[in-house]
Amino acid sequence: ECPHAKQIEAALKPYEKLIGEAEQVGENFADGIDEVAENFYNALDEVSNEILKLEGIDPKQLEAAFKEAEKQAEEAAEQAEEAGEENVVEKAAENAEEKSAEGE
Questions:
Q1: Residue 83, CA distances (Å) to 10, 76, 79 in order
Q2: How wide is the angle at C-alpha 17 spanned by C-alphas 12 and 18, nearest 5°?
Q3: Is the confidence at residue 17, as pLDDT, over 80?
């Protein structure tokens, strides 16, 4: 522990309330920013849905299509990963066979 810890604590004592209030103001500010951002994105979502409707596109169908595309992309990525792993195993087996044949 710092040899001057008690002195520092004593010096900060009068400011504890002010520090607490400043922390609360900061938290309130952050909460306000979060609320403004959420309201902005909600409004943006509503506007984009209205634009889609004007274009004759059902926002719910579009969202479902995106989710399906995302699912298919994830499945394709998994298949590609599995294929890559299989290729690695195949290459290792081929290399082992070649090394074995060279050794004979």
A1: 66, 10, 6
A2: 85
A3: yes
Q: pLDDT digit string (tens) for 48-97? A: 999 999 999 999 998 899 899 899 999 988 888 888 777 777 777 777 77
Contact 47, 55 (CB under 8 A): no
| Nearest CA among 60, 58, 56 for reference residue 68 | 60
Amino acid occupying residue 84: G
| pLDDT classification of 103: cutoffs 50, 70, 90 | low
Distance between CA atoms of 89 and 51, rounded to whole angstroms? 51
* pTM of the predicted structure, to 2 decimals: 0.45
d(CA 96, CA 90): 10
SS3 87: helix
The span from the CA of 59 to the CA of 103, in Å, is 65
